[in-house]
What we know:
62% helix
Amino acid sequence: MDPAIDELAAIGRIIQAIKRFRQQYPDVQTPPERAKDAYLKKHLSDQDWLFWKQLQQAPPEPLAPPRVNLPEPALSCSQFKRLLSQYRRAGFEAYQMQLQSNFGETNTLPPC
C-alpha cells in the first residue's frame, strides 16, 4: 500500500483520538499535555503512537509565501474602459438579436 495513504490514515486516527480526548475537557481551553500523551499512548496502536511522536519531534516546515496568480496589467485604464464598453455593446447587441428572434421586437419586455 502507498505510504502516503498509510500516513493519512494514521493522521485520521490520531485526530479522532484527540477529539475524543478533548471531549473529556469541555471547559478547559488547553488540557494538560501529559494527560493528552497518556490518553493517546493508551488509545492509539503502537504504530500510530510512534508516528505521533515523530510528528511531535519534527520541526515545522516554514510557510511558503502566498502566490498571487493575477495577470500582469498589460492594459492601461483607458484601454480597459474601451474594451469593457465594446464588450457591453456586443452583449447588448446579442440580447437585442435574441429578443428579435424570440418576440419579433427589440428593447421591450416580452408579453406576460
